[in-house]
Amino acid sequence: MPPVENDTGKKELKSQIQELIDANQVMVFSKSYCPYCIKVKDLFKELKVECNVVELDLIDNGTNYQEMLLEMTGQRTVPNVFINKKHIGGLDKTMQAHNDGSLQQLLNGENENYDYDLIVIGGGSGGLACSKEAATLGKKVMVLDYVVPTPKGTTWGLGGTCVNVGCIPKKLMHQTALLGTAMQDARKFGWEFDETVKHNWETMKTAVNNYIGSLNWGYRVALRDKNVNYVNAYAEFVEPHKIKATNKRGKETFYTAAKFVLATGERPRYLGIPGDKEHCITSDDLFSLPYCPGKTLVVGASYVALECGGFLAGLGLDVTVMVRSILLRGFDQDMANRAGEHMGEHGVKFIRKYVPTKIEQLEAGTPGRLRVTAKSTETDEIIEGEYNTVLIAVGRDACTDKIGLDKAGVKVNPKNGKIPVNDEEQTNVPHVYAIGDILEGKWELTPVAIQAGKLLARRLYKGSTIKCDYINVPTTVFTPQEYGSCGLSEEKAIELYGQENLEVYHSLFWPLEFTVPGRDNNKCYAKIICNKLDNDRVIGFHYLGPNAGEVTQGFGVAMKCGATKEQLDITIGIHPTCAEIFTTMDVTKSSGGDITQAGC
Ligand code: FAD
Ligand code: NAP
């Protein structure tokens, strides 16, 4: 094509270029051999952003394009990059925008004037981590947190479930129970104390709650230090980019933001039977209960139920767990049953295959007296029992139904209220993200919510591409005999790989600390599941014994690195410990060999 000399030709070329800029989210004018252009194109490829490229050396009128681009942008060189119609510049300017996070903002079309760059709804594990990270990266951030009181009126401070009514008080109360056992052991080790040992609920509750209070305060200070605007109000969408915040006095304020992160967590589910909300408590009430719960019925058989039932029994209370079907659904059942068996041997009663149908108050008080009617899940049989406290722990519902998601167009799974997201925690609405317990099909654990929140902020505002890895997440159930696991349960491994392709190594063991007191001989248990098709890689790790969290964390790292059975075998153990069992396991489950531990 001849050089554009007349005004009409120039006008045509200009509008041609402008059309390209207007029609493409990313438009790059490039030369196919230019190394700087290659770098820019690679960056967009890495960011998985479609970019439209015109290679000026491969078209007839490339020089004219370059002259026109000079006229339009003041830049003649390539690459010449445009995002959402805005001229960015060459490689240096593009990389700079990538590093300071503004590239991502431009890609997301954030050119409008909003009150905030980011509003995070929910100040729990995920929300706090995300908002602090975003503010550290220079963004204007607001986090809203509001606790709707339980039917019993219990409420708490900033920090969400983990700090106030989850991991922290649970582990401290579990520790209280372990100390009780340690005191019994202590006499066997020669400690002499005459007084009758008894536990004072009020003292424990006050100490635990004082500690939680200090954490609540610490979170407030951290938000202030990082310039995150914390508002203690209930948030709900009124428009896709606008929320209404209602504080405890009912005052409504409206805020807008370019982006939103939903981190509203879950709350305990009730049974929906007569008397449950009036007379029962949930884990949201238990940790700050002003009086000792006394004889307790725990309804449910998962994490929360077994952990709470376990520590209450460890404090010396009469505890019964009512199980609808199995223990710890989703976990390795061999391990779950061993954890349950240990609880049974240490005083916890189990009523299997029953569900409550009615709760009646026989006597008010602190605690009062309740009558529980329950029916069998298999027969017509009805049973009744009297308890001081009924703790309902039958799962948790995502807090997504009253936050105006329809106003923002965010889809939820109508069956469970959970929010589906892509592997970047983005909902179906591009400027709305979700993290933590409300996510569909993800782990409901504090470190998972924190990791997802932090990485999300870095992807949004730092140009990072690192995503939260939800595979091989280590976890521990703090039952009286703790159960740590990472990777697949035996059932799931069989389903995925077939029994014939797996080798399961296992062993009972007797922690040295238990030998002198003479308790729980060969009751602790270790098991690994290896994939024969993949070099005997460890795909399931299971440990039932003391300090399960501490033991499992390290093996979680090993599994991230792809540990194989051979690598465990050549690792030298630390003696005398419980964890060393994983370096010496040689009995396979398929052999049926003896797995009791005889000596050290
Ligand atoms: P949350 O921490 O629940 O935070 C959500 C926050 O948002 C809450 O403060 C809520 O009040 C607030 N909120 C909700 N709606 C709104 C709204 N519309 N406006 C403003 N604020 C709102 N995990 C572990 O890793 N280890 C454990 O040992 C462990 N133990 C647990 C024990 C118990 C008894 C329970 C119940 C949970 C336990 N968990 C444990 C799970 C862990 O607590 C959660 O996975 C974690 O807290 C989830 O974080 P999140 O940010 O998703 O939500
Ligand atoms: P969950 O895992 O959803 O388990 C619910 C339990 O309640 C199951 O045993 C279920 O029995 C039973 N149940 C449900 N409906 C019932 C009914 N109508 N009557 C009787 N029983 C009923 O719930 P969760 O224990 O509350 O735990 C929630 C999440 O918190 C977990 O997924 C976990 O990730 C997290 N968490 C973590 C830790 C930790 O890391 N240590 C501790 C606590 C909680 P079926 O099996 O019959 O359905």
Automatic annotation (TrEMBL):
One of its GO terms (biological process) is cell redox homeostasis. Residues 26-88 form the Glutaredoxin domain. Its EC number is 1.8.1.9. One of its GO terms (cellular component) is cytosol. Residues 473-585 form the Pyridine nucleotide-disulphide oxidoreductase dimerisation domain. Pfam families: Glutaredoxin (PF00462), Pyr_redox_2 (PF07992), Pyr_redox_dim (PF02852). Its cofactor is FAD. Residues 116-453 form the FAD/NAD(P)-binding domain. The keyword Protease does not apply. GO terms for molecular function: flavin adenine dinucleotide binding; glutathione-disulfide reductase (NADPH) activity; thioredoxin-disulfide reductase (NADPH) activity. Coiled coil: none annotated. PROSITE patterns: GLUTAREDOXIN_1, GLUTAREDOXIN_2, PYRIDINE_REDOX_1. Keywords: Disulfide bond, Electron transport, FAD, Flavoprotein, NADP, Oxidoreductase, Redox-active center, Selenocysteine, Transport. SUPFAM superfamilies: FAD/NAD(P)-binding domain, FAD/NAD-linked reductases, dimerisation (C-terminal) domain, Thioredoxin-like. Has a glutathione-disulfide oxidoreductase activity in the presence of NADPH and glutathione reductase. Reduces low molecular weight disulfides and proteins. PANTHER family: GLUTATHIONE REDUCTASE, THIOREDOXIN-DISULFIDE REDUCTASE. Belongs to the class-I pyridine nucleotide-disulfide oxidoreductase family. This is thioredoxin-disulfide reductase (NADPH). It comes from Amphilophus citrinellus.
